[in-house]
Design goal:
heterodimer, A: alpha+beta, Glutaredoxin, 7 helices, globular, B: alpha/beta, two-stranded antiparallel sheet, 5 helices, 9 strands, Thioredoxin-like_sf (chain A), Thioredoxin_domain (chain A), Thioredoxin domain-containing protein (chain A), Thioredoxin-like_fold (chain A)
C-alpha cells in the first residue's frame, strides 16, 4: 500500500480546517483534463464537509505530455509567495486551455499581485524547485497518474467522480468519531 | 517470475526498425525492465508516460529504463513519438513474447506481457521484482525504494 511521503507540514498549501480529522491530499497537474474535471468536484466536497476536512494540493506536472503544466505550477507557487496560492490555483484550473506565459502573467495581474515581485519569483528557480520537490514526493508516494489522492496518508484508489470520494471521506469522519 | 539473486537472462530485441538492444551491453549500469501489456493505453498518466518524467531520477542512480511489450517495432515507434518518450521500448514480437516468457511474465490468455517490473544491478543480477495487477499502474515508488536500498547495501 502506497503511503504519502513526506507527511503534510505547514509548508504545504492547506485549505480548510488544519485540525480536521480527515486530510485529503491531491497531487495534481494544471494541464491535465482529469484534474480539471476533479477541480469542481473537490470544491463541492470541501463545501459539503466544511470544518471536517483539511485539503492539501501538491504539484505533479507531467511535463512531457503537458508542456505548460510545470510553468503553471510555478506561477501558482510564485503567487503563493504573496499569499494568493489558492486564488491562482483556481484561476488556472478555470482557464486550463490558456496557460502560456502571457496568460499566467495576466492572471497574476488580475489578482492584484505586486507584478515586479511576481515576475522575479516566477522566473526564479526557488519556486520551480518547489514544484520539482512536490513531484519527487509524489513519485515516492506512489502517485501513478493525476489526479492522485491520499486520505489520511493512504493512497485512495477508488473513483473520485460523482459522490464516491465524498462518501468515502464522510465515512472516514464517522469512523474516526467513534474511536 | 525470476527470483531475486538470479542472473537475468540475456536477450536482444528491436528498439527501432533498424536497431537492437542487447541486455549484456548494459553491464555496468543498473537496468529497470518494465514489462507492460500494450502501447496506447488511453489515459494521460499511463505507466510509460510517468516513467518518462523520471529519467533524471533513474540516471542519478546509474539506472537505465527499458520498456518491453509484444507490440511491433513500428507500433513502438509511433507510440514513442506520440508520447515523446526518451527511453527505449523493446519489441518482444518475434518469436512472440519469447523474452516475456523467459522472465516469467507472459500472459497466455491475452497474448501480452504482464505488468511486471525488474531492477537489475550493475552485474545483471535481479535485485527486485514486482508483479502488478494488469489494470493497475504500479507507479514508481517500488523502483525508487529498490534503487535506494541497493545504494545502502553497497
Amino acid at each position: 500500500m502506497s503511503k504519502l511521503r513526506p507527511d503534510v507540514t505547514s509548508n504545504d498549501h492547506i485549505q480548510g480546517n488544519v485540525n480536521a480529522s480527515v486530510e485529503l491530499v491531491e497531487y495534481g497537474d494544471y494541464q491535465c483534463p482529469h484534474c480539471g474535471r476533479a477541480y469542481p468536484i473537490i470544491k463541492k466536497i470541501q463545501k459539503k464537509m466544511g470544518d471536517n476536512l483539511k485539503f492539501v494540493f501538491r504539484n505533479f506536472p507531467l511535463t512531457e505530455v503537458h508542456p505548460d503544466a510545470r510553468m503553471a505550477a510555478t506561477a501558482a507557487e510564485a503567487a503563493g509567495a504573496q499569499g494568493k496560492f489558492w486564488e491562482m490555483h483556481d484561476i488556472i484550473f478555470e482557464n486550463q486551455d490558456s496557460l502560456n506565459y502571457e496568460d499566467l502573467m495576466g492572471y497574476a495581474e488580475s489578482l492584484g499581485l505586486d507584478m515586479d515581485q511576481f515576475e522575479k519569483d516566477f522566473n526564479s528557480s526557488n519556486y520551480s524547485d518547489r514544484v520539482d520537490i512536490d513531484f519527487e514526493s509524489g513519485l515516492r508516494s506512489g502517485v501513478n497518474g493525476t489526479p492522485g489522492f491520499f486520505v489520511n496518508g493512504e493512497k485512495y484508489n477508488g473513483i473520485w467522480e460523482d459522490k464516491e470520494l465524498l462518501t468515502f471521506l464522510q465515512n472516514k469522519v464517522q469512523e474516526l468519531q467513534h474511536h | 517470475m525470476l527470483e531475486v539473486g538470479t542472473k537475468a537472462p540475456d536477450f536482444s530485441l528491436f528498439t527501432t526498425p533498424d536497431q537492437r538492444i542487447e541486455l549484456n551491453q548494459l553491464k555496468g549500469k543498473r537496468v529497470i525492465l518494465a514489462f507492460y501489456p500494450a502501447d496506447w493505453s488511453p489515459v494521460c498518466g499511463d505507466q510509460m508516460s510517468l516513467y518518462n518524467e523520471m529519467l533524471k531520477f533513474f540516471h542519478k542512480q546509474n539506472a537505465d529504463l527499458i520498456g518491453i511489450s509484444v507490440d511491433s517495432k513500428w507500433c513502438h515507434l509511433a507510440f514513442s513519438k506520440d508520447r515523446n518518450l526518451h527511453f527505449p521500448l523493446l519489441s518482444d514480437f518475434e518469436p512472440k513474447g519469447a523474452v516475456s516468457k523467459l522472465y516469467g511474465v507472459y500472459d497466455d490468455t491475452t497474448g501480452e506481457s504482464k505488468r511486471a517490473l525488474y531492477v537489475l544491478d550493475e552485474e545483471g543480477y535481479v535485485r527486485w521484482k514486482y508483479l502488478s495487477p494488469v489494470g493497475i499502474n504500479p507507479g514508481a515508488d517500488g523502483i525508487m525504494d529498490a534503487l535506494d536500498e541497493m545504494n545502502s547495501k553497497k
